[in-house]
């Protein structure tokens, strides 16, 4: 009987532990969706800024416009998954349809303020020699093939020199592009194959003077 009472007294603790584990998993998933939404918005705002401010070649301009339209197609679902309000999206689509890039940029910047991308873990204030060496190694093995000779394949959205990109845009935007834009292969279900520590090492490498 004592053994039975001991087991029964442990059951509520097990249920509490299971509930806590489930709640933690839900919180992590919600945080991931919020970070994904913030990264999407940061990238969209960056593309709109390029259309407003940068001298972009016609073919690449078309690529940026198409990428913005594609991002807006999935933005309502991304907003809902992150607990956001999808009501601004129709207005954003109208602005894209009218090619009103300054107004689109203003709207996206407002949305970005409401959903800021947390880049702190990728933009470390100081990087060690080992961090920089790791970033250089990852770049050479994974990124250099396309990004060190950019523009050879898709002229509408050409691969950019990543070190130059790091210097040409706000660091938070670059971190968002790296965090969301790196893709694996079928073995990783096309998910980002790098940890945040490895992505931070890449950022540290791209920040080095050239």
Any chance you could write out the topology, listing elements then pairs?
Elements: H1 2-53, H2 58-81, H3 89-98, H4 101-114, H5 129-147, H6 162-168, H7 171-181, H8 196-206
Summarize the structure.
By secondary structure, this protein is mainly alpha-helical. The chain contains eight helices and no strands.
Structural account:
It contains eight helices and no strands. The chain has 210 residues and is mostly helical. The longest helix is centred in the N-terminal third of the chain and has 52 residues. The protein is globular and about 45 Å long. About 10% of the residues have low confidence.
Given as residue ranges, the uncertain stretches (5+ residues, pLDDT < 50) are 13-27, 186-190
In helices, the fraction of residues equals over 70%
Structural class: mainly alpha
The total of beta strands comes to 0
What quaternary form is this?
A: single chain
Mean pLDDT over all positions: 83
* Beta-strand residue percentage: under 5%
Short key terms for the protein model shown above:
mainly alpha; globular; single chain; 8 helices; 210 residues
């Amino acid at each position: 009987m004592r053994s039975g009472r001991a087991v029964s007294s442990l059951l509520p603790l097990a249920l509490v532990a299971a509930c806590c584990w489930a709640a933690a998993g839900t919180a992590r998933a919600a945080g991931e969706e919020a970070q994904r939404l913030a990264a999407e918005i940061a990238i969209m705002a960056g593309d709109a800024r390029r259309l407003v401010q940068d001298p972009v070649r016609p073919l690449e301009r078309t690529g940026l416009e198409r990428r913005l339209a594609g991002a807006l197609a999935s933005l309502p679902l991304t907003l809902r998954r992150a607990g956001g309000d999808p009501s601004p999206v129709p207005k954003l689509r109208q602005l894209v349809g009218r090619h009103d890039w300054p107004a689109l940029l203003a709207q996206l910047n407002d949305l970005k303020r409401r959903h800021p991308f947390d880049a702190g873990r990728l933009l470390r204030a100081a990087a060690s020699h080992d961090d920089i060496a790791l970033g250089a190694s990852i770049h050479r093995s994974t990124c250099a093939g396309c990004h060190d000779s950019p523009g050879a394949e898709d002229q509408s959205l050409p691969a950019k020199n990543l070190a130059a990109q790091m210097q040409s845009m706000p660091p938070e935007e670059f971190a968002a592009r790296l965090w969301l834009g790196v893709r694996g292969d079928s073995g990783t279900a096309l998910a980002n194959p790098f940890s945040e520590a490895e992505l931070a090492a890449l950022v540290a490498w791209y920040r080095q003077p050239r």
